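Good morning C.,

I know you're traveling, so I'll keep this short. The sequence:
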Amino acid sequence: MLDYDAEARDYDASRGGEPRARVAAAAVERLLPVGARVVLDVACGTGIVTARLLRPGRTVLGADRSPGMLRLAARRLPGAVLCADAAQLPLRAGSVDAVLLVWLLHLLPDAAPVLAEARRVLRPGGVLVTTADKNDAYFTAPSDLAEATAALRRRHAPRATDAADLLTARATALGLRPVGETSFPGLGQGRSPRAWREAAERGRLPWCREPAELAATVRALAALPDQDAPRPDPRYRLLAFRG
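The tokens, ready to paste straight into the viewer:
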């Protein structure tokens, strides 16, 4: 996992900045319950998306376990950030109207404890909003890059902890029912074959951890034309579940 304290200063600029934050917040807003008064953004990072959810009559809290990220989030959400682990939130049961888990669950070895904690702090009728299938987002649009890596990803990618079917099953077991879905583009996040190659060589691609898989991935990516031309932006999927 990345060192988010070290990444904090450049995080927004490297992740699409304000344009991506704007479309992400708009997508989240579409799934929030009408009249939501208390919204909790778990793993809020720098708060660049979180702050865009502020409305008159609504309290928005940001929680993260990275002090570096929270220092930046506190500038956007004064007095409304919590340093906390996603599986141990310092909030009362049934105290919030919505919990957001955006770009978090795919990073975890097991999403179950975080989902259970989100369920605990949700009030009856509250809504959980989460991203799903994050690592597949780069390959939903047709491209030569998606085609070149498809077989490798099918054979070697581990089971994603944020797979939509797995999340739905776990949410249902916690008494949450699906109530909505939307998506949004990762503006400016389309990567070139060269960038994907570099990510593979740094060990950041889940389907090429072993030497043979890495070599095959690098060969497939190096064979593509226009090595520095970005391919389509990812499209992130958001699911909503109501308690």
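Safe travels,
E.
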